């Protein structure tokens, strides 16, 4: 089962490639503004941003999916820099206030780094703080994450987060260094060699060092993943036959049958709590009779109620899919002291305690599935389908048990309640944002 947690080697290469393109875009914006006439600086920035936009679009429709948030962050930074520069110059031309000629792209010398680095720092910091609420990130968590399927130990998520943090720190350090030099050491006569080094080449060298660091980092990461057999190549994916992974959660009353000696699919070596009913079949799909036969053989109980939980396909290989099922048993756990597969009955209260306080003791897939289950059930209890609270008491924090899961008629495959959990009446300016969102969707449907 470890195959499902392996990292596509193309994704490791994509991490490096995306970061390299971002750094080159910033370098091009800065260097071309110095080489070409100053008044072309905002035009150059917008052209670079256009090229970066095309690259991001092509990557997003590619077969191998990578997190594009770092690239989009740099795109926003360059666009905001271009328009902020234009606004500053227009305000100067209209006589609203006087500005030093280092900020005016009609005069010599114009110093782009004085604006580019601080603007980038502000934009990157804002996205770094709010990136989990971005539409792209929400869709990624709900539609693409299979638990363990975004790479060993959440590789893509952690690396994208690290790249954002790196961009933020780098732009912040460069902003402070350049502005300190401008305020205390720069002489407004002409640009000498030292000025050129600080205002232009310091940023370029910082970006180049960053590129070297991440090149070494991702090469070593590739070697580590390969050595630990946590890497899978695109050729291996193409040669693989269609596989369907099945996970069953066997439930009796408010107890779930688990083993505490499972091996995590994310690549960890420690034993964790997980369902022992996990199998792989070389075929694209199943009939309900096939699924029932499998879980009956694994449990030794043939009168349980089989119910589909939800399933997803691997984003970089549509031939692999992971399906989850519930298998509800009637009666009490004393009626089933032992099942065919080794494990033990664990109360749901204990499961919730481990999940809340020691999630590392549970398999990554189990944590992901419980999160989805809890999010959907609790959101449906708190909010209606329009996103408004059913009760006016905001402190209302409902709970649930496995008996409620069995009785529930909710379609857990549908992401409706997941979306409502992240966008509801508790969101600031919800009515206004909801109106705008619906208006935009209506406009898109009209255009389509």
What's a quick, concise take on this entry?
By secondary structure, the chain is an alpha+beta fold. 54% of the residues lie in helices and 13% in strands.
List keywords for this structure.
alpha+beta; seven-stranded mixed sheet; 9 strands; elongated
Helical residue percent band: 40-55%
Given the helix and strand composition, which structural class is it?
A: alpha+beta
* Multimerization status: single chain
Mean pLDDT: 85
Largest sheet: 7 strands, mixed
- Proportion of strand residues: 5-15%
Q: How many DSSP E strands?
A: 9
In DSSP terms (H or I, runs of 4 or more residues), the helix count works out at 14
Word description of this protein:
- With 448 residues, this protein is an alpha+beta fold.
- It has helices at 9-35, 41-60, 69-93, 113-130, 135-144, 155-184, 193-227, 234-239, 288-299, 348-357, 364-382, 402-407, 416-422, 430-447, and strands spanning 7-8, 231-232, 243-252, 255-263, 271-274, 278-281, 305-314, 317-329, 344-347.
- α11 (364-382) packs across α13 (416-422).
